[in-house]
Structure formats: C-alpha cells, structure tokens
Give the backbone structure.
Amino acid sequence: MFPITDNVLIFTVIMSVILFSLLVGAKLKIPDLVLLLIAGAFLGEHGFNVLERSSAITLFGEGSWVTDRYGRRMAMKATASKPVTKITEQRMVLTVSNPVTAARLTDLAFLMRDNSVPGAIFPLTIVREQTDTEEAVSRGEKLLAQCMAHASSADVSMEPHVRVDLNVSDGIIRAIRELRGSTVFAGWGGDHNRGSRIFGTVNQNLTQNCPSRLILCRIMRPPNTTRTLRFPFPPLAERREDLGTLIRETKLLSKQIGAPLHVYLSGQTAGELEARIEKTSPGCDTKYIVKDTWTEARKEMFHDAHEDDLIVLPQIRRNSVLWTPTLDRLPELIARHFPYSNLMIVYPALSSSPIGDSAPIVLPATKQFPAVHGVDLPFELDGPERIQELLDKGLAEDHEMADDAYPLLLDSAKLNPIELAPGVVLIHGHCGQKENSILLIGHGASDLPFLSLPHTPKVIVALLSPKGDAPEIHLRALAAVARRFRDQDVTQAIKEAESAAAICTILSHETNG
C-alpha cells in the first residue's frame, strides 16, 4: 500500500498536510515550516513511508511555494493603497552637489510643489569631514547661494543647510530626519556615457535607508522643455501606499509644464488604475496606453519615448513585499537607451518597523474596557505628526472624527499628558458620535521631540470618549485604562512589545482575565 505512487493521491496528501500545518500553526502559534518538517519526517521513508523521498522533497518545495505565494498575498492586502489623506505640510529636501544639478532640481521642486499647501524647500549639501573642511564648507555655501539666487523670483520659503559628516549618504539621512523632510530629491551628475551609472554608492544607500519618499532625478535638460511625460505602471504599482501622492504630483507636473501625460497600464488592474488617475486632481491632458502584459506595455513605452521626454518611473525598495527583481534593471535600461532624456525614479517612504505599513489592529469593546485600535508609527515623525498619524490610521474609516480629535489630543499632549509608565504617555478627549469609547495605541520609537516632554514616548495611549458621555463616564474609562498599567508585569510586557499588535494582545488578555 505504501509508499503511495498515484500522483493524485500524492498531491492530495501534500495539500492536506500543508492546509493542516497552516491551520494548526496559526492556532498554536507554531511556525508553519516546523510543522512541515515534522510532517515530512513522519510521512517520509524514515517514518511511515507514506511518500517516497522525492515526494517528501516535493512536500517541502510545495510548502515553501505556498508560504511564499500566500504570505505575499496577505502582505499585499495589508499594504493595499489607502485613501489619499489630506496633506498638511510639504517639506522638500534637495540634495545638491554641483551647480547644474542644483538649478535643475530646484526648478523641478518648484514645478511639483502644490502652492495651496504650506511648507518649505530645503537645499542641502553634505561636506565630507577632511583636512580642508573649512574650504569645502565655503564651496557648499556658494553652491547653496546659487540655489537661492536661482529661486529668488519664486515666492517660496527656502532654507539652505550645509552639514559636515564622515559619510555623505549617512549625513543626508540624518539631515532628512532632523528637517522632517516629506519628499527628498536626489540628483545624478548628468553624464550620459555608458560608464556613468545612476545607482552609485550614495544613491544606493539612499534607496535602502532614506526614511522619506525618495525621488532620484536624472535631469538632462530643463524640465519645462519636456515634450511628453511618460508614466509606466509596473506590476503591483497600484498597491503602493503613496499611490495617490504619486499620481497627484505627476499630474501637477504635467499641468505645470504644459506637456501631455501618457500612462502605460497592463493587466487586470488597468481599468481600476485608469479610474483612479481620472479621479485625482488636478486635471491634465492624459492618454492611456493599455496592454495585456507588462512586457508589452514596457516595449510600447520604449518605442514611443523620445529624447525630449520625461519618464516618471514608480519603483519599489528591496525590503518591500511588492519588490520584484525584474524591475531593478529598468532604470539603468532606460538611461542607456535614452541617454539625453529626463528620468525620475520614485520610491515610497521607508517604514522603520517591519510591520509599520500594516493595517491597524482593532479589538472590540467590552463592558469594562473600550475598543482598542493599534497603530505602528514611523520613526521619522515628531510629536504633532505622531498624533496625526495615530488618528489617520487608527480612525481610517472616520476621517471626520480624526479631524475633530486632533486639536483635542494635541492640547491634551501640551497641557496635561499623563505618564502611565516610563515611555508610555496617555492623552484623552471627547469627540465623535460613537456609542463607546475608543482607545488608540501608537507604538514606535523616535528621536524627535514630543512637544514639551523631556523624552519622546515609545507608546502613545489616546482615549477618545463620545461627546455625549458625561464627565464621570469618561473618568471611569480613564481609570480602567490606568488600572491596566498598575500591574508591573503588564507594564513591562507593554514596554518590551515590538508592535502595536502585541500591545493590543496584552491588553486584550488582561481584559479577558
């Protein structure tokens, strides 16, 4: 009877074991791979000999494939693009190193800036620490002075910065965090020979470690001379978190320079993307080229492109679940085929936490405790921005309540923040029309200040009670939250937790107990 030789039965056994491993692993919190290894040992020739050695190896191969396929699918659901949130401030950082690149990056930043949103532009140059540092700083100041003179006619706030550091890329990243840059423009020297690569050491380090949205710019000619903007959407680009910002910026650039926008789409999501682009303001002259596959769309773009075009290429960082190796060579390929064309490579912001882009964790309310919403906060946000991020993600389905809650929580953080434990701060307020109170848990370390507190808390606890609740009901909710932190074991576990989800689980177990 054994080993099984019928292919249908072999496949049935393998898939049954995989399904069993996934279900049992999730329930017992045991890694799926461990269960697959155990199953392989029992079913293989050294166990019950149900499957031959080749079939047992296939079991492990299929298990890895299923884990990768469905793990990626679950991760992509978590990172699916969210509704465009209202931009409250633009802080553009321009990393400059030579006069030609500096002038063109400045022009590009002006064209992509939304004048209806407040903010500033920060030209930045990094001087490597050496024996003649003073002379190098002087050259950097002259370079930034040229940027200021070039932008003198524009009514835009510019704040130039010169920094000294042992390493250029590390200096840029530190400055970006200190300046709280929302978008970073990094240029390439402009050479068009085959030996001059876009991704040198500095740009490569930036793509891996820059915390903010990053735009690598290969500007070969003034942006306002562009004839056509070409905007290809690689596979999975529709799942970017910054998709709304990317579309809005590209359409704004098209409108500002008066060049038509040609969008290259492919696959089953082409219709969804086209509708999304059409709904995003501002309006511009847009043409859609739709193909069955990405290979066909890319080939069509290469056929259509000219030297006086500007190509806006959405790109993904290597540590993202959306990254695919086939896209890595595309920027170099474009630069080689079109050495005189302008090219912008756009990377989304880098999450400081391995699950920083995940969906909020929500636990339902009980009679003794409010509903808990957990959010992982990015590293690069200061006090007010951390509160805004907590509300935007924790109340993603109720933007009106988030807008009402922000000034209340900001005032609470300024006037009467309650330190429940070292590194844990409680803020609170009355807002919204919900039936029950909501407890928002924001988790994430930061070196930036949290308003007037001497130390930035790692955990922010925000209690929101309905407007109609009497003061004593709100006070009872505050007392219930405070009681959770009286237990030293619970407090220590919360301080050591690596994510908002872990904190929610700790509070949930304490509630159920």
Remarks:
- Residues 369 and 511 are 7 Å apart (CA to CA).
- The chain is about 45% helix and 20% strand.
- The longest strand covers residues 119-128.
